[in-house]
Amino acid sequence: MAEPREHVWQAVRWLVLAALGLLFLMPYIWMVSASLKPLDEIFRASLALVPEGGGTISNYVRVLAEVPVGRYLWNGVVVCGGILFFQLLFAVPAGYAIAKLNFPGRDWVFGAVMLGLLVPYHVPALPLYVGFSALGMLNTYAALILPFVISVFAIFLFRQFFKALPDELIHAARLDGMGEVSVVWRVILPNALPAATAFAIFSVVAHWNDLFWPLIVVSGPDRATPALGVLYFRTEEAGDDFGALMAASVVMTTPLVLAFLVAQRRFVEGIATTGLKG
Amino acid sequence: MPLSEVLAIAPAQRRAPVGEALAGMMLTLPSAVAYLLLLLLPTLAAIVLAFTDYELGAPSLAWIGLGNFEELLEDRGFRQSLRNTLVYTAIVVPASIGGALALALLIEALTRGRALYRAVFFLPVVSLPVAMATAWQYLLHPTIGPLNALLREAGVNGPAWLTSSDTVLVALAAIGVWEAIGFNLVLFLAGLTAIPRELHQAAETDGVASAWERFRLVTWPLLGPTTLFVVTISMIRAVRTFDSVAVLTQGGPNRASEVLLYTMYTEGFTYFRLGYSAAITLVFLVIVLALMLLQTRVLDRRVHYG
Asked: pTM for the full model?
């Protein structure tokens, strides 16, 4: 009795989700469609998704000719990579120390971390801008990277993670004659990998997509990140040329989306675990 | 612990405290310095700045007490911005949470295709917001946009979504919901997986026949902690909204889509009134802190932990 009814319900759920999913993908579908249409076809506002006459790649040609796509993507990689490298360099040892070591001031340090979790990064932005400006550091990778090298969230995350590691692991390493530095290097670091992967995805997604801070410290294409690059192309060159604009959007959105499609499970788990702990 | 074991680890423990204390301090030192220079001092400076008339490039600054905050109260633009932020949040939070929960329940009940649908709805989270905002601008364009073209087919004259003060905030909120749903969905799916299946079966055996009753009696209470967290983080993310406004409307038309962070940005980095901008930042910080306090103090007590 229940079996056929359950099949019907499965089919209904599937269809509802398919319809909603299609609706959800509309911005992508239209973005790709318009990027392949010549301008006059876009201005006719037809509802045909497939471009007449098979479409054109002229929009992409224009984007690749006028936008330093490689430059923007490279800047994105340098900035996200730099931020992540220093975040891990600072947060893994600190998280381990707070979780497993007894030292004077530990409770103060942990209190400071909890306090830092309350402050959105937009709050210190003004004084940091004044500081970078006074030091002549605007328009540099350093200005893009430095404000984020200390992530209290990362310290908190690693502290929680290391807290769950058995003490015996560390005691055994010490009994084997390892110093504190090699304990961190050879025991803690390899064990931190799952937490580090989850945090890395969280961090890269956040900083690759960020517009607020790059908009403040960068002007001009030299150090522009992908987000800023799209904005520049929009305001300075493309105007109402929606075909070229959509082509630029497709080009700039693709790298992270591809990474997501390749490592879907890791992305979702990374965002879910970091999300739930933050 | 047997004596022999204590003796066995005793030397290591006796040696540990000094070395351990030193190691602890050395390992936290880089973080502590970076924290001080890049987080604590700038945050304190922002708070101090809020009570001054500092403007970038000005030779000096003066302590003006609550002057900036008095000006904020009088500033119609700021009040509009605060109101818009609240309206935006009031639309995005319930819609993105309700939508995400419904989708999560639908997806969780699937026997196949879960990963596919999760990926579809999660896609906006990993898509460059500036680029997607541009795609939305085309989609919502009054004359050449597909949405209004569709409405014309149905005989309706669609509004100029992003350039009319009547619709701009709703349009931005719709984009906000679209961006937030995937993130909330993933959190709800994680929460649902943690609920043991036996509980639903037990409820069914106990005579709770309808799916809605099982949701109300089993799923919803057990999902409490997840929902509480999703509510808080959704509110904070909505109050923080910046990208779509900066890209699509610059707060216009006529301040109809001005939001808190965008006002802070223009005052600080377009007009260089840093003191005034810092005061807005402080208002923003107080709102975020209040939301976090709401989570820990008020809501926490009403949530049933499973």
From this structure: 0.88
